[in-house]
Task: structure prediction
Amino acid sequence: MSTFGPQVEVAVARVRAEVARLHAELTRYGLVVWTGGNISGRVPGADLFVIKPSGISYDELAPENMILCDLDGNVIEGTPGAALSPSSDTATHAYVYRNMPEVGGVVHTHSTYATAWAARGEAIPCVITAMADEFGGSIPVGPFAIIGDDSIGRGIVETLAGHRSRAVLMQNHGPFTVGASPKDAVKAAVMVEDVARTVHLAREAGPLVPIPQEAIDALHERYQNVYGQVTEPSRTAKRPT
Ligand SMILES: O=C(CO)[C@@H](O)[C@@H](O)COP(=O)(O)O
Result:
């Protein structure tokens, strides 16, 4: 039996449903093969997050087999899904939530083009307006780190500190994205793959043309503060830059 109050229980149920549902977006946008990616979501109002179980087919993911963890990555025993092993990236997601309080969602994939940049250890330069809009500049590379402990999380947090980008390419591994909500982090995962592909193809065909810094700043400011609807969570919960 769980020991949370009714408000937290409602919030946990919402996040379970959202995180389970959002995994379908990873397959919809072709960001994963087999089970090579994961999404988590912070539970508002509690030191908890929800993450998927390890190695389970996306078709089988459901609110009741999502796994509830504390911010140290410990599974909350006695809750639905607790009998399953959590995602192998649980320690990474937990580290991000502990150290980036503004983050409400984390996504990891091995999407092809973004991972190809990661395999070269090369940042994606900001040469298209969509990158300026969404990421406010280049997409940085984080250090090579082995899965299983805090190393990847530390690399993500240190690389994103003082950076506008909500995506980091962990060297030799793949992209991790953060957002104000799980959906916001999924959007960044979709966008990072799109821009990784476009910039790769552009460079194959000829030299890249940089965008002046003032234009990048103006594009980012507009997209983050004017584009879309005012109710977007990414508008109301900004990352400090
Ligand atoms: O990157 C890796 C393994 O290298 C993992 O993120 C990926 O295989 C997904 O693992 P999980 O099914 O979430 O445990």
In short: The first strand starts at residue 37 and ends at 42. The pocket of 5-O-phosphono-L-ribulose is lined by residues 35-38, 54-55, 87-89, 108, 147 (CB under 6 Å). The chain has one domain: 6-236.
